[in-house]
């Protein structure tokens, strides 16, 4: 799932500095680590 800028929930959590959410997201779906946004 990506928004119009290509950001995944992982990108947004990282941008906001929420390490706990980043860890939870990657535990559930480690493939999101390889997604790149459009910027």
From TrEMBL:
InterPro entries, sorted: Ankyrin_rpt, Ankyrin_rpt-contain_sf
GO CC term, one of those recorded: plasma membrane
Principal location listed in the UniProt entry: membrane
Keywords of the record: ANK repeat
ANK repeat ranges per the UniProt record: 5-21
Protein name as annotated: Ankyrin repeat-containing protein
Localization terms from the record: Cell membrane
Domain of life: Eukaryota
Membrane association type: Peripheral membrane protein
Keyword ATP-binding: no
UniProt xrefs under Pfam families: Ank (PF00023)
Organism field: Trifolium medium
């Amino acid at each position: 799932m990506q928004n119009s800028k290509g950001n995944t929930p992982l990108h947004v959590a990282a941008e906001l500095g929420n390490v706990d959410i980043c860890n939870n997201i990657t535990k559930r779906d480690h493939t999101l680590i390889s997604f790149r946004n459009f910027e």
